């Protein structure tokens, strides 16, 4: 495994942490790119792309962590679904919250800058095209950085049984009534 070659003296837990640290940059970049979109149509498309990139990166890191902490974990039939428990616990809600936060920040930033800093000398169009996307970029990247840290901690606790036992899948048979 590449992580083992990069960190030969690290424990399995430290390597699992490093798996999440390695995906952090791509997740931050996706969040920052989402925040740059000032156009509402681009904003929706970039939010969907951010959700996809973030979820896939975190699932990949969770799979690496699972295999490092519980060798053979990925060979089980339920591994794919079990990894969704810690990762998807807050991802969708988090993405909705960041989208709402970005819209609120854009509005607040535009109003504050127009009224207090620039007065009426700067046109609204110039402000929107230069200032607001930068604020959105910072918020999107910072939010994703915090989210990957939360999911890393939740996943590692889950895989080391500090929070809950693994999910047990039960076969259910429907009996015609």
Please describe what this structure looks like.
The N and C termini lie far apart (52 Å). This protein has one domain. Helices cover 73% and strands 0% of the residues. With 177 residues, it is mainly α. The model has no long low-confidence stretch (mean pLDDT 75). It has helices spanning 2-6, 12-36, 40-69, 79-82, 84-87, 91-117, 124-130, 132-159. The protein has eight helices and no strands.
Summed up, the helix count is: 8
Mean pLDDT: 75
Q: Quickly give the structural class.
A: mainly alpha
Coarse shape: flat
Q: The biggest beta sheet, please? A: none
- The beta-strand count equals 0
Give the helix level as a range of percent.
over 70%
Low-confidence stretches: none
Termini gap: 52 Å
Secondary-structure element series: HHHHHHHH
Radius of gyration: 21 Å
Strand content: under 5%
Total domain count? 1
């Amino acid at each position: 495994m590449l992580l083992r070659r990069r960190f030969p003296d690290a424990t399995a837990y430290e390597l699992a942490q490093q798996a999440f640290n390695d995906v952090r940059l791509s997740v931050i970049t996706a969040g920052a790119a989402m925040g740059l979109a000032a156009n509402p149509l681009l904003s929706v498309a970039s939010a969907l792309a951010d959700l996809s990139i973030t979820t896939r990166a975190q699932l990949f890191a969770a799979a690496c962590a699972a295999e490092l902490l519980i060798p053979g974990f990925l060979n089980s039939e339920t591994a794919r679904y079990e990894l969704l428990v810690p990762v998807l616990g807050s991802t969708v809600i988090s993405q909705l919250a960041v989208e709402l936060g970005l819209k609120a920040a854009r509005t607040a930033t535009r109003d504050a800058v127009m009224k207090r800093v620039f007065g009426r000398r700067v046109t609204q169009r110039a402000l929107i095209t230069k200032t607001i996307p930068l604020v959105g970029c910072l918020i999107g990247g910072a939010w994703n950085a915090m989210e990957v840290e939360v999911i890393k901690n939740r996943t590692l606790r889950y895989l080391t049984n500090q929070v809950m036992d693994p999910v047990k899948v039960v076969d259910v048979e429907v009996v015609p009534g």
